[in-house]
Amino acid sequence: MVADRMTDEDTTVPQPTRRALLAGGAGIGVAAALAGQASAQGQALREFEGKTAFVTGAARGIGRACAEALAAGGANIILYDVAAQIAEVPYPLATAEDLAETKAAVEAMGVGCIDVTGDVRDFDAQRAAIQQGVDRFGSLDFVVANAGITQIGALEQFSEDELSLVIDINLKGVIKTIQAATPTLREQGAGRVILMSSVTGRIGSANFPVYGATKWAVIGLAKSTALALGPSGIRCNAVCPTLVRTGLLDNDYILSNLQPGTTLTFEQFNEAAKARHILPDVGLYEPSRIGDCVRFLCSETSSLISGDVFDVAAGANAQFPA
Ligand SMILES: NC(=O)c1ccc[n+]([C@@H]2O[C@H](COP(=O)([O-])OP(=O)(O)OC[C@H]3O[C@@H](n4cnc5c(N)ncnc54)[C@H](O)[C@@H]3O)[C@@H](O)[C@H]2O)c1
Known about the structure:
Elements: H1 14-22, H2 26-45, E1 52-56, H3 61-72, E2 76-81, H4 96-107, E3 113-117, H5 123-137, E4 142-145, H6 160-188, E5 191-196, H7 209-229, E6 234-241, H8 252-255, H9 266-276, H10 288-298, E7 309-312
The chain binds nicotinamide-adenine-dinucleotide.
């Protein structure tokens, strides 16, 4: 993405080479120019040096990929994840080992990392995690409200408790993440907030009616947050994945409820994903694709983009209303 925005001005590196050649100092000039080029590329690669990101649902899947993508850009990371089973959730959530693995992967990129075990339904715990990060790293620059659970089935089948569970985590949890981060972001007068929605928040879904409703709500929340915090220099956007290769989909609960009376294999599900996507041979794709999008939305390249919705949908989104 950074390379995409290189202009003629950015490509001035070869010029000293020509000047050096004319001056007869070819060897030294070329070496200096190449060193300059490498350093410019290095700076682009570490564009988030000294910045700090708070990522929820970071122990695995898309959250881990976002943490890794921002760490690759040089950002310090506060990982936040329940990292244990929530009894009412009917498929396995991340474990303490997953969280430790993410921390190790992030630290391997040479940045600072704090891992906090906590639930997004807990405002105080999120606030404390952010404060811990600010105390250690000095700022809060990026907030990725990613934690969420899925819920499949016909609208009329869900109990009051099941409705509360998905709404409390997917909607109220995201609201609490924004609330926990806002005082620090406002004080700094800068920041980027990214909310993880879904393509089920862009079109109706008979299979995911309540989950989908929470994701529509998250898009509304992204737009309201962009309006409310924009004057303080804070941007907010929503990202909508289609079908990503994570534990949220690769589990018996999902595979046995996608089609009535049959349990799909993950490979069959992958073929169905290919049929859904318009670009050729794109099935369930890797979470790093969402990490790349989030990295772009945190970068200066996207400095005028706020209140927007980014579908990562391999062309399936071309069928959505605008
Ligand atoms: N996988 C997909 O195809 C897909 C598609 C569209 C949107 N999404 C959204 O992307 C986000 C991440 O999904 P994923 O596919 O990586 O799922 P995942 O289940 O692999 O990861 C979700 C992470 O969130 C954590 N988590 C769940 N509930 C939590 C809570 N209450 N508090 C703190 N942490 C909690 C889990 O432990 C897990 O580490 C979710 O919001 C999901 O709705 C995923």
